[in-house]
Amino acid sequence: MAKSETDRTTIDLFENEKRPGRPKTNPLPREVQLKVNKRNQIKRDKARGLKRIEFKVSSELYQALSDMAQAQNISRSALIETILQEKLANNR
Questions:
Q1: Which stretches of sequence are listed as region Disordered (predicted)?
Q2: pTM of the prediction?
């Protein structure tokens, strides 16, 4: 049986053929990789003495914070931390 280069239904004929793209470097599925990465990030933050705070804001406020942070060349979380520190300092 001759193999046709356009036939991709018979995988066994093409198992030795190199495929384009980056080779798989991590044996874990992407879903598990993301969980491991998140867990490691939380551990790094904890080691640096950081605590996690989550809250929901409107998309307009989110965009305004993003724009302001980008204008000041800092991260959005650093901007929010600065705003909160200023507010706390003014209330004392």
A1: 1-28
A2: 0.58
Neighbours of 91 (CB within 10 A): 6
Farthest-apart Cα atoms in the chain, separation: 85
Q: Degrees (nearest 5) of the Cα angle 35, 39, 40?
A: 120
CA dihedral 46, 48, 50, 52 (to 10 degrees): -40
Enter the tokens of residue 25.
């470097």
- Which residues have a Cβ under 8 Å from the Cβ of 62 and sit 6 or more positions away? none
